[in-house]
Amino acid sequence: MFAITKGLALRVATVATALVVGPATLAPGTAEAPSPGRAALAGDGATAAQKFGWGIMQWDFAWEFGESLDSPPYRGLDTTTGYWQEYTDGTGRAVKYGGGVEFQSGDQLYKKAGPDNGTSMLTLRDQGAVRGRWEIRERADQSESNATRYRFIIELIPDDLTSDPCKQSITIAEVSPGDNSLKIGATADGAKWTKTFADGYPQDNDNYAFALQITKRRITWFADGRAIASLADVDARPTVPMTLRMRLVGDGAKEMNKSIVKVDWVRNYDLTRGDVPPEGADLKQGTNRC
């Protein structure tokens, strides 16, 4: 009994030390330091927070110290509220893995075995905001190529989940494992703005940091620390608190390519400081028909 108790105490002490030392070395409001000698090219994971000197970090979900999907953020000004709500309607799931969250399309133990279909989703609860800055680092890959590609969508939707996200939402990034394109956009009741980058974002297990900034005057999209597009149309800017949703989207029961998307961290910053980014590319306006 003594040996078991002693071992348990040692493990508890080790975890407690990690919880104290880890967040202290990455204080609230500080961004992760860039890797030496790496240029800010697509796929290298440079961040907008680094490039533009963003404000105080409000929260950071990084899952580095044993947190579950139900755990609040591990650092930032607000570490008491927020959790992730999971949903799936097919073979996939969203699970915590070492140092992040992993969207799995199906059984990953045997790469060619088992079906892959449906949609897996994580929605952030209790952290809604009308304006601010959000940044997410992801990497995606597929181990099959004979079926249909999944889509992975990072977006803001109304924090009130009874509202229709079709009437108001912002796509921070839409990519597909095995593809090179990036789609962004916004929807409002009756209007839709979109932009597609046909190449330059290969989803073959490379890191990408996608970000969004919403101020009183403009929405700006970022990829790997670069402002890639902006939108000043007042109708596109949210009027209600918005929350993050991440989805690995299939096509109902249709068989899809076996895929994995890993999210290393999800962060939020306020607007108290930071350089003004360039406006970036314009989005094309159309009609919202959903």
TrEMBL record:
Residues 1-18 form the signal peptide. The keyword Methyltransferase does not apply. SUPFAM superfamilies: Concanavalin A-like lectins/glucanases. It comes from the Bacteria. The keyword Signal applies. GO terms for biological process: carbohydrate metabolic process. Keywords: Signal. Residues 67-274 form the GH16 domain. GO terms for molecular function: hydrolase activity, hydrolyzing O-glycosyl compounds. This is GH16 domain-containing protein. It comes from Nocardioides humilatus.
